Amino acid sequence: MELVPWRPLGELSTFRREMDKLWDNFFGERFPEKAFGEEWYPSVDISETEKDLFITAELPGLEAKDVNVSLSGDLLVIKGEKKKEKEEKDEHHHYVERYSGSFQRSLRLPVDVQFDKVEATFQKGVLKISLPKAEEARKKSIEIKVK
After folding, report:
1. 3-state secondary structure of 126
2. E strands in 41-132
3. Which positions ≥6 away from 95 have C-beta within 8 Å?
4. Which residues contact 134 (CB under 8 A, 6 or more apart)?
5. What residues does 69 pair with on adjacent strands?
6. What is the C-alpha separation between 39 and 33, in angstroms, rounded?
7. What is the CATH number of domain 38-84+99-137?
8. Which of 43, 74, 117, 120 has the largest CB neighbor count within 10 A?
9. Residue 59 and residue 66: Cα distance in Å, rounded?
10. What is the structure's pLDDT at 36?
11. How many Å from the N-terminal Cα to the C-terminal Cα in the chain?
12. How confident is residue 79, by pLDDT bands cut at 50, 70 and 90?
């Protein structure tokens, strides 16, 4: 005879899976979590070369005038607002996933940068920020001398 741990809520997980299947069959796919009121944060990539740090943020449906970028110390802040599109008077929504409202994304930079040379461009819903590294932050290779 084998001992099996008793899980008092085990039936609830089975019930949850069955409800998820029912929900999926009815709507075709599960609602994403953000559809239930969570805040939206733009997706961000951070990369670097020897001389520069690059940040790319996806901001679909926004224009450059809707976005603000600021840098204070090693904290880069991207914020803005996506306005809700005008609804028709007799329009009834069955499914709403698109986010509208304000957002703010704060990123701590991994290196010191030259504040006066930071550049930001915005094209087709993609924000690109180029941050030249400060001279002290650049990696320096040290030659090993043989005696």
Report:
1. strand
2. 44-48, 52-58, 67-72, 75-82, 101-108, 119-123, 126-132
3. 27
4. 111, 112, 113, 114
5. 78
6. 10
7. 2.60.40.790
8. 120
9. 10
10. 43
11. 73
12. very high
**What's the angle, vertex CA 108, arms to CA 139 and CA 78, rounded to 5?**
125
Residue 123: CB atoms within 10 Å: 8
Convert 7-29 to b/e letters by CB count within 10 Å (16 or more is b). Answer: eeeeeeeeeeeeeeeeeeeeeee
C-alpha to C-alpha distance for 97 and 30, rounded to whole angstroms = 11
Q: Domain spans of the chain?
A: 38-84+99-137
- Residue where the block lists tokens 């019930």: 15
CA pair distance 107, 77, nearest whole angstrom:
6
Give the mean pLDDT of 102-122.
91
Question: For residues 117 and 135, is the Cβ–Cβ distance under 8 A?
Answer: no
Q: Which residue has the tokens 């087709």?
A: 124
